[in-house]
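Internal tracking record. Fields below are filled automatically when a chain is submitted to the structure queue. Please do not edit lines marked as system-generated. If the sequence contains nonstandard residues, flag them in the REMARKS field before resubmitting.
Queue: standard
Priority: normal
Entity type: single polypeptide chain
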Amino acid sequence: MFDVIYLCFAVLAWAIVGYKSAAWFRDRGNADLGLACVMTGGVATVFLFSAPSLYRWFDRLVGVANLAMVFLYSSVVVFAAGALVLLLRWTAGEGEAARARARAKARATVGGVAALWALAVIGFAVGRPDAVEHPRDFSTAYTNSPGVMLFLVLYLAIFGSSLAALGTLCPRYAARLGACWLARGLRVLAAGCWLGLAYCACKVIGFALSWAGHPAHWLSNGVAPLSASVAAILVLAGFALPAAGPRAAAWRRLRRLSPLWRTVTAGTPEVTMERANWTVRWPFADLEWRANRQMAEIRDVQRGIRRHVESDAVDIARERARGVSLDDRQLAAVAEAAALRRGLENRAVGHVPHHGADSVVVVTGTPMGTDTHPEGAELAAEYEHLALVADVYHSPLIETVLTELRQRSSVSRG
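SYSTEM-GENERATED OUTPUT FOLLOWS
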């Protein structure tokens, strides 16, 4: 069971590494992204060597029992060193001189971590007393071996210090960013760091209890690995959220906007861009670009049908919407959907009213021109508004409004 769980997480982690590496290759000057790739790779390697079967297979391959543990903990140290360098970059300050000092400190930090870890590996090599594999209980099996204890204590010291620093700084940095996916990712990353500190605490307490003659294997070999695994998942999620979050949001927008987009552009294919290619491409490619295009093309159609919409159509729709106690957002969506359907209907039969509408776009209850976005409104708010328009486009209330408009039009013609 442990093999399946850890290997599945390893595959997922390496997929994230591959995605971030591809992004870094496109933007080599982004040192923070490069560090994120290195740190994510460290977490992925931890999951890989945590699988007991792979752990034993590797040791049989090299002929040294428990050497896989050195590679596993070395991957954690790589993550820790990357975290410390990242902290130095984030706290460097402005100006080339500050960045130069940060680079010098980063080199010194990496050198210090490398020296300490070399000492730890020597302790492992000297203190490993037997050739028995311990993929699940390494820390409790060698409690009385000074060399292995040196290895473990230095590992926990390096790892714990980096987690404490990163867990403290990430929320502060996120607070400066405001509400965005990067800020959310940093907060999840911080949660992973604090849970990782719980893992370190469990290990240290386990050592102390063993030395006091009261070994607590359930704590060192049960609670600690579980907390470390969950912490690693949170860390991966924190790294993945800034990239995955906007794409997931764009995918949801596409799913909600696509029915409306297909309906309103069916009669005006000239406003669409690369429409035929979208059906054969990878469905998750260019999600944000495609969502932007759909919204822009819906707006293009609205701009073109204004003269086909009666000037009082929006007012009638808003009046009927108030009659069923809708809030301002729903009211605006109903008014815009009714005007859009009426414009398409009139255009299809070639009817142009004597007095056309100035606009068929309604945001928070106020008609506006379609040549610009709502002043001060964020793009996400406009997406949500159009999604609400799509939701009510075929509602009974819209049918009621259209019926009234048709009747009024028939009377005026007669």
